[in-house]
Design brief:
single chain; 482 residues; alpha/beta; Aldehyde Dehydrogenase, Chain A, domain 1; Aldehyde Dehydrogenase, Chain A, domain 2; 2 domains; seven-stranded mixed sheet; six-stranded mixed sheet; globular; binds adenosine-5'-diphosphate; Ald_DH_CS_CYS; Ald_DH/histidinol_DH; Aldehyde dehydrogenase
Length: 482
Amino acid sequence: MVFTMPQLPRVANLIAGEWVDGSGADTLDVLNPATGEVLTSFRGSTADDVDAAVAAARAAQPAWGALSARQRSEALHAISAEFSDRLDEFVALEVLDAGKPLSAARDAELPDIADSVRHFAGAARTLSGQASGEYVPGTSTFIRREPVGVVAGITPWNYPLWQAVWKIMPALAAGNAVVIKPAELTPLSTAAFADLAQKHLPPGVLNIVNGYGSVVGTALASHADVNLVSFTGSTATGRNIAQAAAASPIRTVLELGGNAPVIVFEDVDVDASASLIVEAALYNAGQECMAATRLIVAEPIAERFFDAVVKNLEQVRLGETTDEATTLGPLISAAQLARVEKLIAGRPSSASLRFGGTRPDRAGFYLEPTLITGLSQDDDLVQHEIFGPVLTGQTFADESEAISLANGVGFGLAGSVWTRDVARGLRVVNALNFGNVWINTHLVVAPDLPIGGLNQSGYGKEGGQLGIEEFTRVKQVGISLT
Ligand code: ADP
C-alpha cells in the first residue's frame, strides 16, 4: 500500500447510535503534525453532552450485559472482520492525524491493532476464578464476575486507535457500555472506528464525546453514573482524574507516564544491542511511555556503546510521514516539540550532546534523533518523561549501582536489562521497580499480556486476563444448604 488520501470521518459525538455535534461554543482544529496544516475541525462538548452519553450507555448496558459471552463475542468478531478488511483506511488516518510514518503504521501498528480487536472479541469467554464450595459450614458459595456497568475511557494522542481499542473492546467483551473521550489532538481514527463498530452493536453500547480534557474528561471522571474510568495519559492528568473520581468514588485504572531504564552490561554484543535499543527508543518518535530512553551502561564499554548508538541515529530517515522510506516522523504538536526542546536546552553544562538536539529545517513538528550523555541522576532529562526521540546516557561501575540508577526515579512503568549472563539478568529484573521488564529485548507488547505501571506510572492492568478482569466486578453469592 502506498499512501492514498482517506475520506476523513465526521468528528462529532456518538450518543445512542446518532452522530451529533458537541454543544460547546469552541471549535477545535485537528492538525497534520507533519505539515502543521489543519485537516478538519470539530465542535467541543460540554458536561451536558457527557450527561447524554452516560445516560445512553446506562440505558443500553443491562441488555448488552445480559447477552451470553458468545453473543457479545459474535458482535465483536463482526467488528473485527470489517475492521481487518478496511485496515488501509485506518493506516492513512493514523499517518495523517498522529504523524506516524507510513511503513510503521502499515507494517506494525495497524496489524497489531487488528490482532488486538480480534483477541479482545473472544477475551471474555474464558474468565476464571475461585472454585465454588463450602467455605463456611452449611453454606455453598460461588463467585460471579459481572460487568462493572458504564466504563469511561479517556485516551491519549500517542496511539489514538490502539488505546481506544484496548479500552473499548475488552470493556464491551465483559458486558459493559462505554463512553470514549479521545485526545483532542487525534480524534479521527477513533471516530472512524466507532462508526464502523456501532453498525454491529445495539445503540448506546458505544458512545463518544469529543472535546477538551478539562471539560469532557473531568465531567466523565466525576460523573456519578460512571462505574469505572480507564485512563491513559500523563501522570499530572492521572492525578486530576483520580481526584475527580474520588468524590463518588469511581474505580480508576491509570496508565501513566514512564522513563524506562535500559541497563547494558559489558558482556553484550554492542552493535546488535545498540541497534535494537535505538529502535525501541525511537518508535513513534519516542512518544511511547515505555520507550527505551535511559541508557545505563557499564563503564568499560560505555564509550563504545554510545558510539554505536550514534551510528544507528545517523541511519534514521526523518521525513514525510507519507513516504514509506521514513523511519522517524514528527512530534504530535508544536507544544510537545517545545517541551522536549526545553528539556534538551536545560541539560547541565557537564552533559554532552552526542547527536541531534535541533529541529530540522522543514515544516511540521520534527526533532532530530538525539543522544545526550554524561547526565546525573537528578537531572530533569533523567527524572522527567521526555516523550520525544531522545536517549540519555549514564554509566555504572557495578550491578548494585546499575539497579539503583534504574530505580532512582518516580516512574515505574518499564525497563530492560541487557546481558548474556542469565542469572544476572534475572537478578536485575527481580530488583527493578517497574511493571514491565525485559531481558535482551524491550517493548514486548501483545493483547494477551498485561501492561501496567507502578508508583507514578499508575495502577491497574490493560491486556491479558488481568486486563479483562479490570472491567468486571466480583460478587460473592452464598446459599444456605439448610
Ligand atoms: P498531554 O498532556 O500529553 O496532552 P494528557 O494526559 O493531558 O496528555 O491527555 C490524555 C487525555 O486526557 C486526553 O484525552 C485529554 O483530553 C485528557 N485530559 C486532559 N486533562 C484532563 C482532565 N483534567 N480530566 C480528564 N481528562 C483530561
